[in-house]
Amino acid sequence: MSTENLLEQARALLIRTMTFYRDDPRTSTWLRGRVERLDQPLRIAVSGRVKAGKSTLINALVGEELAPTDAEERTQVNTFYQYGPEPKILVHTPHGAVQNVPVSTLDAGTIRDLQHWRPDEVVRLVIEAPSPGLQAISLIETPGLASSAVQETGRSALAQVLSEADAVLYLTRHPHQTDLQFLQSVHELQIARSAPINTIVAFSRADEVGSGGPEALQSAERIAERYRNDPTLRAFAQHVIPVVGLLGQAAATMTDAELTALTGLAQLSEADLDALLLSADRFANSTGPESIPPATRQHLVARFGHFGVERALTLIRAGSGDAKQLRSALLEESGLNALQEAVHQQFVERQQALRARSALLAVDMVLRANPRPGVHQLRGEFERLVANAHEWEELRLLSALDSGQVRFTRPLQAEAKRLLGAFGTDPRNRLGRDENALAVDLAEEATAALSRWREQAVNPLHDRTHREAVRTVVRSCERLVAQRPS
């Protein structure tokens, strides 16, 4: 069964379930919305605790400052950011009405004011923007986990919004028990437990780890490594990635004026620059140097953070002087590149598997919430699809290989990841061949790979975990052999 076939079968089961409940307008309408969603851009919910940096990271991922950022938690309603040919703001009320707020440009102040509305007045905001970063995905910003909005509407309402997403990007400064309990709560359903493939955890303020400073990111990476190997977190999260969201946003949207100011600061003597960078307050409010006034420095530290300013100046002095070089280096330093790569590989590249998961999750929710005579056939087909969803097994194993939970020898490790689709799900990518490879060569390589991994299946040195991993790779090879790519 290919990923495409899994999605087709999940769609077909979702439609049959909608037909089965056609005499229940509320249920059938809800299911129809889930069917329509399968052809829309992938939905990624950006969630987390209060002031985890959700808005900042959304702007960094999109490459534009769309989501308002404030010193205090302001988001009270779920806000959807999606692609549209023209700027548009839609307000959805609890009674089902949709109001169009006339705008010519997307002003952060307008969005901020609407986000302050109470959850019982506004169910969601939909922000449409002609941003290239939103063509493949839509982003859902949720209120903070401990915010007044969540306290009023309850976690079940937040969990309901997350169930509308195909994937979750969960932000935290440091995983607390509250985070783990919440993530467990949204993985309670059978389908979520069977396919824990849709969550990435980001340490969104990695520059604040410990005492901050140049060593903060290294400390954050060590903490992330520890959590990658934590069995509780690993049960529902595929990646744990440190990221400096503020720096990522600033790098992605850096202006010429900011580059000029940073370049001017980098020309100061080393002693003067070191003195200026002793603290964020000193950098922003010191009377000198006259060439870069306090207002400009205050702007820079607000945009880049103290850590970001320090890294930018270090990079400029080391030779990354033009805008392209500096932006690229800062994106790498911020961890945003690693996060975007994980989002692309885990979510975008595997979006059909995630869409199938969303479809089956909807079926599971309805069959549990509204059981009636005759559902046993739908339930049986649901169980069969879940049991045979090899794509989900591939994603789970890739996560285990990345985290170090499963380790083969270096050549086998690299081949396993490739065959599982880590570098692309096309047969040529899986088999390590270029686009000009002939079908006969692909068939020979697929057969050879299957033979190699069948030998590993009877290797007595493998423990149970590695034997199960080998079986997953063998099945991927068998599907490549059966596919006969042209």
From TrEMBL:
Record-annotated Dynamin N-terminal domain positions: 44-184
Any Pfam family matching the protein: Dynamin_N
Subcellular compartments: Membrane
InterPro entries: Dynamin_N (IPR045063), Mitofusin_fam (IPR027094), P-loop_NTPase (IPR027417)
Keyword annotations of the record: GTP-binding, Hydrolase, Membrane, Nucleotide-binding
Official protein name in the record: Dynamin family protein
Organism encoding this protein: Saccharopolyspora rosea
